[in-house]
Specification:
This protein has four helices and no strands. The chain is mainly alpha-helical and 128 residues long.
Length: 128
């Protein structure tokens, strides 16, 4: 049962989810390219942790195409296996190993969960 985010989560979904959202399919109107070309100010992070009172995005939209999510996770893990990737961490308090661990767990959930509801329950219980 989803009751909100746990106070002590072992993973950080907010970082991993941004890497994976490109593989999700939605019935909503796609965003225009201009919305992704805004340059961040020096030192500004492209990721933010959502406050507890802000609802999560609907990650269930990716469930029917979870094979694409797994492909995205695999691509991210391949990148993170390269020694040069360590130079971009820590990122907003997320260590390189934490990112790898989070992506590996996210992939396990994609494989092991049997429904979108079960997947969402695990996401909310295990990730921030």
């Amino acid at each position: 049962m989803r009751t909100g985010r746990s106070a002590r989560s072992p993973h950080r979904l907010w970082a991993a989810s941004l890497l994976l959202l490109g593989a999700c399919v939605s019935t909503q109107k796609p965003l225009g390219l201009d919305e992704f070309t805004v340059e961040l100010a020096p030192g500004e992070l492209g990721l933010v942790l959502l406050p507890d009172e802000v609802p999560w995005p609907d990650f269930s939209i990716g469930w029917p195409v979870r094979h694409r999510l797994m492909d995205a996770v695999d691509a991210s893990l391949a990148y993170l296996s390269k020694p040069s990737s360590k130079g971009f961490f820590p990122y907003g308090g997320i260590s390189h190993q934490h990112m790898v661990d989070s992506l590996q767990r996210f992939r396990e959930l994609l494989v092991d969960c049997r429904s979108a509801e079960q997947f969402l329950d695990h996401l909310e219980a295990e990730f921030d």
